[in-house]
Amino acid sequence: MDPTKQSRQSTAATTTAVKAKQPRPSQDQAAIEAADNERIRATLTGDMGSLKTLYAEDLIYVHASGVKDTRDSLMTKVRDGPTRYRDLRREETHVRIYGDTGVLNGSFAADVIMDGVDRSFLASFMSIWIRSGSGWVMVAWQATMDADI
Predict the structure, then answer these.
(1) What 8-state DSSP symbol labels residue 25?
(2) At 67, which helix (H) or strand (E)?
């Protein structure tokens, strides 16, 4: 066999093997990220119907400030203020699946108006999602302000 042709075949096989080893997100991981994208969209637009579907009835939501909310108190804040989210961007996220439970963590940037004052901040977060009859719902959220702010 031609040594050049053999080298190309070997390189092609190695490239294919490397691509095969790279993890692909599972359908559940992709579904949780999609649900969280919808949560962000609904928060920014004040879509209470979507938030009610995405948040479990017993949701515990701990803000980066340390303030704790339930589903109802959080939805009231999103609907009525005094905090208005202008932009939310997730970054460096990871999703792990454990049966019917998913853990989404990473960092996010937020631009908000809090009590009439423009603020921007970075925070780390972890959210817990469970599989329900209607899809994935968030049961817990915990955020922590990044230390270098």
Answers:
(1) -
(2) none
Gap between the Cα atoms of 53 and 116, Å rounded: 29
Q: Distance between CA 117 and CA 24 in Å, rounded?
A: 42
pLDDT in tens, 2-51: 555 555 454 444 444 444 444 566 999 999 999 999 999 999 999 999 99
User: Of 23, 32, 19, 24, which Cα lies nearest the Cα of 103?
Assistant: 32
Question: Alpha-carbon distance 129 to 31, whole Å?
Answer: 10
Which residue is associated with the tokens 């004040």? 46
Q: Which domains does the chain have, with CATH numbers?
A: 26-145 (3.10.450.50)
Cis peptide before 25 (omega within 30 of 0): no
- Burial zone of 59 (CB within 10 Å; 0-12 exposed, 13-18 middle, 19+ buried): buried
Asked whether the predicted pLDDT for residue 60 surpasses 90, the reply is yes
